[in-house]
Amino acid sequence: MDSVVSVIPNQNHKLQTSRHIYMVVIFSKIVGARYFRISGVFGKEDIISPIDTVGHGSHCASIAGGNPVKSASVFGYASGTARGGVPLARIAAYKVCWEKSCDTADILAAYDQAITDGVDILSVSMGSAKVIHQKYFEDINAIGAFHAMKKGILTSKSADNSGPDPYSISNTAPWFVSVAATTIDRRFFTNVQLGNGQIFKGASLNTFDLQNKRYPLIYAGNAPNVHGGFNSSVSRYCLENALDATLVKGKIVLCDDFPYPSIVGLAHGAAGVIYRSNYSLADAKVFALPAVHISPNDGKLVYSYLNSTSNPTATIFKSYEGKDSSDPFIIPFSSRGPNKITPDLLKPDLAAPGVDILAAWPPNSPISGVKGDSRMSNYNIQSGTSMACPHVTAAAAYVKTFHPTWSPAAIKSALMTTGNATPMNSALNKDAEFAYGAGEINPIKAANPGLVYDAAELDYVKFLCGQGYTTRMLQKLTGDNNSSCTQANRGTVWDLNLPSFALSTTRSKYTSVTFSRTVTNVGSATSKYKATISTHPSTLNIQVVPDVLVFSSLGQTKSFTLKIEGSINENVVSSSLVWDDGTFQVRSPIVVYVL
């Protein structure tokens, strides 16, 4: 195997290899890598290789399976031992994103290759650019994940960063796990001090030390690039090329939003940037110059000070770490349900840490991601559902090590029924299950869930046919010319064996729907489970029949129905079904909402 480096023999899986010499630094973690660019079109910054030059892929991969590393940090921040969720796992990497685009053909080719290579779990931290599909066969990730499911491979997929609007989630197919992002109890704060002594606490990860020096403060709306055709209504947002460099050079700039503060600041020689917006202060971004995000109210006070004196000044301090007692909650950018394609199918499925996550970073990529930033590190702190996704990937891999024969649906069920919704801050999670699904992952409990809701290809085919799919539409998704939709194999969404229950209705309208489910005993051979329904409005009646399930052996299955009848006046009503045998508590969320 000439010129192939970092290849780990595996008796079960085909080798994934790389011929790039830089792969030698990865040693035994990566079993190889491939890149895909079917169009052959590359940008100026692209390196035609599987090597990650941006950082996103390295960050996500190390969250899932990175080796333990002591004293990991970003210039001293978040210092400690960093490790992936399953540090003994091997990783096969498939590069599909380039400077200009992430092409559909490349993504599907990567899915096909990963399936051929025999991976155990697929982790896909990739958004859909706010594209909400009307049918599952229009979604390339739904297609790829379906093909993976057919081969026994679970796909973990980020829920997207298009929140907090309802219906913003685009990854809605039932055969993969859609992952939302929660906060953690660590926060990074950055203080701003004005010339009058006022101090405001904001958010960012600012590693720069201005040594208490105060710089002239200018409002971006007062520094438009007039010669470039911009006026104050545009320059106030610090858009690229919108500022007059001669007016902002050497000054701290107050912006009304933060699309490109790093790029704008560096390009125009600004000393720093203060930006005010409604964006959550829980997410500390890394910028290419001293920068801080403050609340709109604090922004008004800074603006008022700026206009109250002829020589306004300010300084930005280095960031410091603190605790967040309000965690965990779903960060606003995390995409929300309901499911636009199938309203009675709950999405997202689960939540996992996705804010201010420390993980690996390519040492040749600036930590801000901005060209011209000279700060390089082996680690970086990033936020996104992209970071939440590999946490669930790792949890799924962990479960699979205990249960290698379990189907993707069984693993997904184990993760969901052991998810923890209790500690979610209700005041900050008003979207409830449409924000966090079954709750935040608990990998230890997921390895031994007691009962699982299993499903296979035929179950999903029946579901799709019941959604009105024609045979031609079905075959576009399955890739199987033998797939067909007949009257005999049309099922309803309420019969799909999912570990969750969702029902859309009209306000104050009487509704009666019965869900059918089957559970498999994977806990104690001899066990007796009792069903409990959590509190719900008096206008709703939720009944489980039978409400007791008795098992005499492992692998035994039992079926039950859950009937919801009544009406609701609220927008969303949350409840849950718990099967409890005294040892295992198997929880499924129930959501009834106004469509």
Automatic annotation (TrEMBL):
<keyword id="KW-0720">Serine protease</keyword>
<feature type="domain" description="PA">
    <location>
        <begin position="237"/>
        <end position="300"/>
    </location>
</feature>
<dbReference type="GO" id="GO:0006508">
    <property type="term" value="P:proteolysis"/>
</dbReference>
<dbReference type="GO" id="GO:0005576">
    <property type="term" value="C:extracellular region"/>
</dbReference>
<dbReference type="GO" id="GO:0004252">
    <property type="term" value="F:serine-type endopeptidase activity"/>
</dbReference>
<comment type="similarity">
    <text>Belongs to the peptidase S8 family.</text>
</comment>
<dbReference type="InterPro" id="IPR015500">
    <property type="entry name" value="Peptidase_S8_subtilisin-rel"/>
</dbReference>
<dbReference type="InterPro" id="IPR045051">
    <property type="entry name" value="SBT"/>
</dbReference>
<keyword id="KW-0645">Protease</keyword>
<protein>
    <recommendedName>
        <fullName>Cucumisin</fullName>
    </recommendedName>
</protein>
<dbReference type="InterPro" id="IPR023828">
    <property type="entry name" value="Peptidase_S8_Ser-AS"/>
</dbReference>
<dbReference type="InterPro" id="IPR041469">
    <property type="entry name" value="Subtilisin-like_FN3"/>
</dbReference>
<dbReference type="GO" id="GO:0009610">
    <property type="term" value="P:response to symbiotic fungus"/>
</dbReference>
<keyword id="KW-0378">Hydrolase</keyword>
<feature type="domain" description="Peptidase S8/S53">
    <location>
        <begin position="54"/>
        <end position="439"/>
    </location>
</feature>
<dbReference type="Pfam" id="PF02225">
    <property type="entry name" value="PA"/>
</dbReference>
<feature type="domain" description="Subtilisin-like protease fibronectin type-III">
    <location>
        <begin position="495"/>
        <end position="592"/>
    </location>
</feature>
<dbReference type="Pfam" id="PF00082">
    <property type="entry name" value="Peptidase_S8"/>
</dbReference>
<keyword id="KW-0732">Signal</keyword>
<dbReference type="InterPro" id="IPR000209">
    <property type="entry name" value="Peptidase_S8/S53_dom"/>
</dbReference>
<dbReference type="Pfam" id="PF17766">
    <property type="entry name" value="fn3_6"/>
</dbReference>
<dbReference type="InterPro" id="IPR003137">
    <property type="entry name" value="PA_domain"/>
</dbReference>
<dbReference type="InterPro" id="IPR022398">
    <property type="entry name" value="Peptidase_S8_His-AS"/>
</dbReference>
<dbReference type="InterPro" id="IPR036852">
    <property type="entry name" value="Peptidase_S8/S53_dom_sf"/>
</dbReference>
